[in-house]
Design a protein that fits this description.
This protein is α/β, with parallel strands linked by helices and 379 residues long. It has 15 helices and 10 strands. Strand 7, helix 12 (257-265) and strand 8 form a beta-alpha-beta unit. Helix 12 crosses helix 13 (287-298). The protein is globular. The relative contact order is 0.21. The structure holds glyoxylic acid. Glyoxylic acid is lined by residues 80, 109, 159, 221, 276, 279.
Amino acid sequence: MKTITSIADLRTLARRRVPRAIFDYADRGSYDEVTLRRNRADLEALQFRQRVMIDLSQLSVATTVLGEPWSMPVAIAPTGLTGLFHRDGEIHGARAAEKAGVPFTLSTMSICSIEDVRGAVTKPFWFQVYLMRDRGFNQELIERARVAQCSALVLTLDLTVQGVRRRDIKNGLSIPPRLTLKNALDIATKPRWALGVLLGKRRTFGNLESHMKGTGGLVTLSQWIASQFDVSLTWKDIEWIRSLWPGKLILKGILDAEDAREAMATGIDAIVVSNHGGRQLDGAPSSISVLPEIAEVVAGRCEILFDGGVQCGQDVLRALARGARACLIGKSFLYALAAGGEAGVSLGLDILRRELQVSMGLTGVTDVRRVDRGVLRGG
Ligand code: GLV
């Protein structure tokens, strides 16, 4: 592909560059993928009010989130297996984010470890955790994040049990990836990936290595989740996390006003309105459709981040209009990474930034911190 003008172009390139099992892991959702499709459809359905004759000479997309300056209201979401999309993918993502002036979130289920990423960047990144049955291991992970000076902890709430991703099962996705009779032809057409990742030194869960002894090293993601994640997680456990992590705490996976109310009672710093990119409860509403009611409950008491289908700058503007302070990108990030490593992610972030600037200009908003429902038809 000669000219890349959109996240969709990066997705096309990603599909060509990484094996099918890896691409599908990012691209697809759970069960019938109803929620996955809703995320996009409901964003696209929101229409802007085109406004003219407004002075745009001072247009700015810079914002502040959790007291930190961001160059635009976009951060990189925690995504599992990132280092299988490109060799040392988490390092590439973190570097691109640092250069762009936005946060990078490292997933517990990453390929590069917390320490690998810490060694490759100068600014603090965010770390995401799940609550696991082995609380001692949780404590250890949070301690490692503290030592690495991570600036926020993101606790994922919506993955105590995993939604079935049918494509992953059919594709036989395993960690580390294996060359099999079934995928040999596919991998043969992706020599750059095979050289980079399959022959690279980091191919399994970097944060979990010490904890994975006895599993023989090779697991499917769903086996790992089923055996390790704590299904007894309740709101009370937030206190325990708080006692270990006095820094900024973000709860990810709020999709219901009732849960937003519960979250507020825990006194956290931010929530992420999210249905896990349509990868968990299929049949759940799109994130964008519930955002206004959640924003109403939160009523400015904490910061609201948003994810779920953000694939262009217009989507960022839509989410901001409906009450988010900023958006996280998961799929869009992985497409960009698979397409071109750090340069791909830089390009992806750049595309989103420019699209946001233009869309703001044409809706007549000059300061991204002042976006409100007035940019949308019907509010
Ligand atoms: C992990 O969070 C996943 O959605 O696969």
